[in-house]
Amino acid sequence: MVTADGTGGAGAGRAEEFQDLRPLLFSIAYRILGSVSEAEDAVQETWLRYEASTAEPASPKAFLSATVTRIAIDVLRSARVRREEYVGPWFPEPLLDDPYTDPERAAELADSVSMAALLLLERLSPLERAVFVLREVFGFGFPEVAAAVGRSEAACRQLAVRARRHMSAGRPRFEADRADRERLAGRFLEAFREGDLDGLTELLAADVQLVTDAGGKAPRWGDRFVGLADVAEVLARLRTLFPRIDATVEAHEVNGRPGAIFRDRDGKVINTWSLDILDGRIQTIRTVTNPDKLGHVGPVADIWAAFREANRDAGTEPARTRPSSAG
């Protein structure tokens, strides 16, 4: 039998199986790689291998999960070299929506996709990271994990122990109640929109941090600001500049946490924020301004032109405004 798109019945069945599992495959790859674009490429390569395979796997889920994991491990090994040479702080590409859901593992899935957790995963070796993601996040059994990473079950158990130890030592803490997080983030973003600096400041933790991933490709005043006074000053400066380019602030979940997307007057993306909230205060603001990491969010603004326009009347310039030296 040949289907309407020219594929045989078996091929159509495989395509349907693959599409059903695609959200899971992407979610595995993203947590291993920390990159939306690389995860999508890994998923596409997984399909090509599945389509070309003549063997009929006993479990398409196990086969496809193992395939995407192996591809992601190989990509991560080469990506780690590039990340060591990255200009300034490196963050994962912001993820607006995780396509995979599992009510039985909702807590693990939500925590594992946060910026803070993904940065902890960066400290693990590629094999440790893959084992942790498959076992601790998605609940795969050790036989499946072993098959996916090409190691014995005993070796995978040891990798899992090491990975759990590293992750537990730096495990991020977040506000437990999602509704509370969202309410506080809403107040914070509204205060920013209205230029209510007192309102902004009262929502910041005393040791709050604002950290920027610009990758040498966007203007900045610095990579990292720590403490209430310094972060409040940066936010006040941004609040002064943004109206000059008619920028808007769109509340949006980013990596499973409250956040925002900033857009210029044409609706193009300037940057994203991801907010860590604990004890009723903003603990960390992670902002991604590197345009290479924002293409999947939407059309990207010319951030250099936007900041030149914003600063034209202000008479100020962000530090290191030359693209070759900014971080």
From TrEMBL:
Q: Does the keyword Iron-sulfur apply?
A: no
SUPFAM superfamilies documented for this protein: NTF2-like (SSF54427), Sigma2 domain of RNA polymerase sigma factors (SSF88946), Sigma3 and sigma4 domains of RNA polymerase sigma factors (SSF88659)
UniProt domain RNA polymerase sigma-70 region: residue ranges: 18-80
All copies of domain SnoaL-like, residue ranges = 187-262
Write the record's keywords in alphabetical order, separated by commas: Sigma factor, Transcription, Transcription regulation
Domain RNA polymerase sigma factor 70 region 4 type, which positions?
116-167
Q: Which Pfam families match?
A: Sigma70_r2, Sigma70_r4_2, SnoaL_2
Q: Which residues form a coiled coil?
A: none
How this chain assembles, per its entry, is: Interacts transiently with the RNA polymerase catalytic core formed by RpoA, RpoB, RpoC and RpoZ (2 alpha, 1 beta, 1 beta' and 1 omega subunit) to form the RNA polymerase holoenzyme that can initiate transcription.
Which family, according to UniProt? Belongs to the sigma-70 factor family. ECF subfamily.
Q: Which NCBIfam families match?
A: PRK09636.1, sigma70-ECF, SigX4
Its name, as the record gives it, is RNA polymerase sigma-70 factor
